């Protein structure tokens, strides 16, 4: 049995990372349900859910400004201290709740701050993976991590609604904070070798600022002549559609579930299950031409999510799950290709620039979703998202460059190995 498992799985640092992903799955799964339900319960309005999603997606849009800072500290220290800070911030929610009381804007601001810190840790986790497992094992390692991540999301998001019904949203957020403390402790045991980054500790503030902007510019230069700019418009488009839908998901699921809060967790779990299936399938599908795979899978997603909006609860959840499979496939293949083709020093910046660019329209989408949900039926934004997936597929079909992309191992995302 052991011989069938890749050797890197038993490597100390990968096991630590895997344990951290598991713990984050516990805390993050509960947090994803509890945080948005807390905002909805405090305000009683879909519009405030839009404000909350606006805050979170704004942090994603600003990620490209934060990514260069990952190279100014040891990766291990960055992960340890940032997770600890997030834990402290989230512990203030139960503290405020049980003392002076909670305000919806206080919660929204904290959602923004924690999301901003996540934009710092995410590129570090992406950067250290090739250091731990080697670039030849990146696709398999990503599949392992994504499988664990989505499995935990399924288990804990599905149970989060039930947990929240028993203990409430605020204690549920305290569980997330405790999980982050555990992650902090685990990451303190990392022993991987970080490439040496030469910095003059005696440099002036002005010199440090110049280096920061030089690093930022280098990230832009790296992707300028790649395939990324050709892909980004369509990715921005579907991200806007996705956030319009997710902003309305709490209200949408309350309608489908006749007022049962647990149903929101079930829908998020079905989304995670679909992404998990996509992550598991991605190594087996990487031999298929990437252009054709994207076109066919996202056209299917669009049809299924239109069904999600119109059908009763059980078939709606099933179609919501199967429609998410394409997202899991796209995530694994694209980010694995970046990790394989980009120099270690640039991985974090390239992934963050891609994520930031893809998030450009999401804050506006969150506000638009809030307005649509407040003025129309919540089913309408879900249907809009499904139709948008079909338009995404048609855009790739109309582009000869994107339509003719070969299998992901032969897609040359970057035409250079060094920044210009």
From TrEMBL:
List all membrane-crossing ranges.
Answer: 12-40, 46-67, 104-122, 231-252, 264-281, 293-311, 317-338, 350-368, 380-402
Q: Where in the cell is it found?
A: Cell membrane
Task: Write the signal peptide boundaries.
Answer: none
Q: Which Gene Ontology cellular component terms are annotated?
A: plasma membrane
Query: What InterPro entries does the entry give?
Result: MFS_trans_sf, TM_effector
Q: Which Pfam family, just one, is annotated for this protein?
A: MFS_3
In terms of superkingdom, the source organism counts as Bacteria
Q: How does it sit in the membrane?
A: Multi-pass membrane protein
Question: Which UniProt key words apply to this protein?
Answer: Cell membrane, Membrane, Transmembrane, Transmembrane helix, Transport
Protein name stated in the entry? MFS transporter
């Amino acid at each position: 049995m052991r011989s069938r498992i890749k050797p890197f799985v038993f490597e100390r640092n990968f096991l630590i990372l895997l344990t951290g992903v598991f713990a984050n799955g516990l805390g993050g799964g509960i947090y994803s349900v509890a945080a948005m339900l807390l905002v909805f319960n405090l305000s009683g309005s879909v519009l405030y859910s839009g404000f909350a999603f606006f805050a979170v997606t704004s942090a994603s849009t600003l990620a490209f400004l934060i990514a260069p800072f990952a190279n100014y500290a040891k990766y291990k220290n960055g992960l340890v201290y940032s997770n600890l800070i997030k834990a402290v911030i989230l512990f203030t929610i139960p503290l405020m709740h049980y003392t002076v009381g909670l305000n919806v804007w206080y919660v929204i601001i904290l959602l923004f701050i924690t999301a901003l810190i996540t934009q710092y840790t995410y590129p570090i986790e992406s950067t250290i993976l090739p250091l731990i497992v080697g670039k030849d094992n990146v696709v398999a390692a990503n599949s392992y991590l994504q499988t664990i991540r989505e499995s935990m999301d399924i288990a804990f998001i599905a149970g989060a609604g039930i947990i929240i019904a028993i203990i409430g949203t605020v204690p549920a957020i305290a569980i997330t904070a405790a999980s982050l403390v555990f992650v902090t402790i685990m990451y303190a045991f990392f022993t991987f070798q970080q490439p040496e980054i030469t910095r003059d500790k005696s440099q002036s503030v002005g010199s440090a600022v110049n280096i920061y902007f030089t690093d930022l510019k280098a990230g832009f230069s790296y992707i300028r002549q790649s395939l990324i700019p050709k892909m980004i418009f369509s990715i921005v488009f579907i991200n806007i559609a996705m956030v319009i839908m997710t902003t309305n998901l709490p209200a949408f699921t309350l309608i489908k579930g006749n007022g049962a809060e647990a149903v929101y967790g079930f829908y998020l779990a079905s989304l995670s299950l679909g992404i998990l299936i996509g992550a598991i399938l991605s190594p087996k599908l990487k031999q298929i031409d990437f252009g054709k795979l994207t076109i066919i899978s996202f056209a299917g997603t669009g049809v299924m999510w239109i069904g999600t909006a119109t059908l009763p609860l059980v078939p709606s959840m099933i179609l919501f799950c199967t429609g998410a499979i394409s997202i899991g496939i796209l995530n694994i293949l694209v980010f694995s290709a970046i990790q394989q083709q980009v120099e270690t020093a640039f991985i974090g910046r390239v992934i963050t620039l891609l994520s930031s660019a893809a998030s450009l329209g999401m804050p506006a989408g969150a506000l638009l979703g809030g307005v649509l949900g407040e003025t129309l039926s919540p089913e309408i934004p879900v249907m809009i998202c499904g139709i948008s997936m079909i338009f995404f597929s048609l855009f790739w079909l109309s582009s000869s460059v994107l339509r003719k992309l070969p299998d992901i191992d032969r897609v040359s995302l970057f035409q250079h190995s060094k920044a210009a």
